[in-house]
Amino acid sequence: MKSTGVVRRIDDLGRIVIPKEIRRNLKIRDGESMEVFIDLDSIILKKYSKLEDINLIARKICIKINELTGYNVILTDREKIIVSIGKDIQNFSNKLLSDSITSIIDNRQVIKDYEPIDLYITSEFKLSGYFYITPVIIEADSLGVIIIYSQEKMDNTASISAQLLSYFICQNIDIN
After folding, report:
1. pTM of the predicted protein model
2. Which 3 state secondary structure label does DSSP give 123?
3. Distance between CA atoms of 49 and 78, rounded to whole angstroms?
4. pLDDT, average across residues 155-162
5. Which residues make beta-bridge pairs with 134?
6. Would you say 165 and 58 are in contact if contact means Cβ atoms under 8 Å apart?
7. Which of 28, 40, 67, 164 is most buried, by CB atoms within 10 Å?
8. Which residues sit opposite 135 in a β-bridge?
9. What's the confidence (pLDDT) of residue 90?
10. What digits encode the pLDDT tens for the residues 128-140?
11. Are 129 and 68 in contact (CB under 8 A)?
12. Where does the pLDDT of residue 154 fall: very low under 50, low under 70, confident under 90, or very high at 90 and above?
């Protein structure tokens, strides 16, 4: 753990204010849920990702999409890659997203590229090829994106696969 040097008092209702600078650095938005952990004499707050709750099942679906179509599949939350399946994108899980992917999430864009493009998935890693990207939207909140990627031109199974995965996530996520 890294100390921030910030000390805060607990108010009479048991609340602590997380300083604005820390919230900005960690991209914590107003109203966002935090998960609370304890370890001996420490309280640890972690941003809660609804998509991580269904990680195992989503991973299995992504593997099956990859097996059936040959396309690479990436599932993200708002900050990082949750699942990455495919020969071109192994070991991407838990990597932070690039600003361009974060912008796609914020703008709720659906992207279908008919021509190959270069796209930074993380700040360090660029993919070149064809993409189908669709947001995962639950209760009007954009929680992440599904990225289907291939170095070869894709057919409409890419959009069908992404839409089915998005539908599955939306139906099976706990929204409380």
Report:
1. 0.72
2. coil
3. 8
4. 90
5. 146
6. yes
7. 28
8. 145
9. 72
10. 999 999 998 887 8
11. no
12. very high
C-alpha closest to that of 88 among 67, 73, 101: 73
State phi, psi for 10 to the nearest 5 degrees: -85, 130
What tokens were used for 24?
């900005």
Report how far residue 97's alpha carbon sits from residue 44's, in angstroms, rounded to the nearest whole number. Answer: 23
Residue 137: name the closest of 176, 158, 99, 110 by CA.
110
Give the C-alpha distances (Å, rounded to integers) separating 30 from 18, 21, 24, 113, 142: 11, 13, 10, 33, 14
The answer to whether 132 and 148 have CB atoms below 8 angstroms apart is yes
- Give per-residue pLDDT as tens, 16-25: 888 888 888 8
CA distance 142 to 135: 6
- Cα 61 to Cα 77, 79, 100: the distances in Å are 16, 21, 25
Cα–Cα–Cα angle for 165, 109, 86, nearest 5°?
Answer: 45
How many CB atoms are located within 10 Å of the residue 49 CB? 18
Task: Write out pLDDT tens, residues 28-42.
Answer: 878 777 888 888 888
- What is residue 176's predicted lDDT score, i.e. its pLDDT? 45
Helices 157-172 and 55-69: crossing angle in degrees, nearest 10, is: 170
